[in-house]
Amino acid sequence: MKKIYLASASPRRLQLLKQIGIEPEVVVADFNENMGGKLTPKQIVIDNAVGKAKAASQNISTKNSLIIAADTIVVYQNRILGKPTCRKNAYETLKVLSGKQHSVLTGVCVIDKSTSQHLAAAVETLVEMREINHNEIEAYLNTDEPYDKAGAYGIQCLAGVFVKSITGSYSNVVGLPVETVGEMLKKFNFEVFSQWHQKK
Predict the structure, then answer these.
(1) Residue 10 contacts by C-beta under 8 Å, 6 or more apart in sequence?
(2) 20 to 30 A Cα–Cα from 23, which one of 86, 93, 123, 134?
(3) How many angstroms separate the CA atoms of 198 and 151, rounded?
(4) Quick check: 64 and 114 in contact, CB under 8 A?
């Protein structure tokens, strides 16, 4: 059985994998994310996911293993909204998203350590926010929730009440499209369901 590694420190990505029965070992590599240049948003998240996976692979000695990496960004009118740098930035981001539809893009990469082959893809989910008023934003910013998340919100937590609708993968908005991950693992002869009977 191949060993699964997650090249991410994100507790949300770890939890998503655990929810589908995968207990990965977390290996975080030093990788400088690319957030601009002439690349499209989809190219950016794919490049970052591949870069993270390859960097993590250098720290893994287990040949019979698969490495999963991901990179998530929020895009509104071709503008990338990353993790907020401060409270003011988070406020401005949420005001921009209020009452509008935006895109959540996650680049996913799976590397087979034994062959160095990899698969990569970008998954897009459209998210429509309802109108969010000043008091709601201020109350949300008083929590610690928005500051480590692309777009300054977490759909799976308090900010779920701000979301009017989504089109596409919900887990993608959280940070890891498990449907795509499952398909990629399958192509490397790893069936997710093979882990289920081992759960206690």
Answers:
(1) 70, 175, 176
(2) 123
(3) 37
(4) yes
Distance CA 91, CA 191 (A): 42
76 residue type, one letter:
Y
Active site residue 71: yes
Domains, the chain, ordered by start: 3-198 (3.90.950.10)
From 47, 71, 112, 148, the catalytic residue: 71
- What is the DSSP-derived secondary structure letter of residue 194? G
Mean per-residue pLDDT, 86-109: 98
124, amino acid identity? E
Q: Who wins on pLDDT, 77 or 28?
A: 77
pLDDT band for position 200 (50/70/90)? Answer: low
**H helix count then E strand count, the chain:** 6, 7
3-class SS shares of the chain: helix, strand, coil, % to 5: 40, 25, 35
